């Protein structure tokens, strides 16, 4: 079973958003879905983004990333992420596999990929799939925060 199967099985009748929920009204913060299999790194990412004022949902592997997306679609009030930050190599599905599926489904949600294996081929594939950017580990948390803020600025 791949990310395609799980998303189609559980949310066949819901329209998939081209972008994301409305948050520019200033009442809620943008929702960021962080997927990272290393617990310490996931906690660091979550804390850094929450400190800036973002709402953060996290996932510890590829299947949980897909499940978080499906859960957001099936929620009484759709709660899909405004941005996805995902590790490339994770158990289950890779960040690239999930990105490819989202793009095939017409989602335009920005995706930032993070990786410890960022060779030229991976960067080219990520660009071709429409990733907003790829950050090679180790990276400065300020670089991630700057990329996030550029893609989904907080309401003022």
TrEMBL record:
Sequence ranges assigned to domain Response regulatory in this UniProt record: 31-152
Region (Disordered): 1-23
Pfam families documented for this protein: Response_reg
Stored PROSITE patterns: RESPONSE_REGULATORY
SMART domains to which the protein is assigned, alphabetical: REC
Keyword Phosphoprotein: yes
Sorted UniProt keywords: Phosphoprotein
Domain of life: Bacteria
Positions carrying 4-aspartylphosphate: 87
Name of the protein: Response regulator
Annotated organism of origin: Pyxidicoccus parkwayensis
């Amino acid at each position: 079973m791949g990310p395609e199967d799980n998303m189609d099985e559980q949310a066949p009748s819901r329209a998939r958003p081209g972008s994301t929920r409305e948050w520019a009204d200033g009442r809620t913060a943008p929702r960021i879905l962080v997927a990272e299999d290393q617990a310490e790194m996931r906690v660091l990412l979550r804390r850094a983004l929450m400190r800036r004022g973002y709402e953060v949902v996290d996932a510890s592997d590829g299947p949980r990333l897909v499940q978080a997306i499906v859960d957001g679609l099936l929620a009484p009030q759709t709660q899909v992420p405004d941005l996805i930050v995902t590790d490339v190599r994770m158990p289950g599905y890779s960040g690239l596999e999930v990105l490819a599926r989202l793009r095939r489904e017409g989602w335009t949600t920005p995706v930032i990929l993070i990786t410890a294996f960022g060779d030229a081929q991976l960067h080219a594939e990520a660009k071709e799939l429409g990733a907003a950017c790829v950050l090679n580990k180790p990276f400065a948390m300020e670089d991630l925060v700057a990329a996030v803020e550029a893609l989904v600025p907080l309401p003022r």
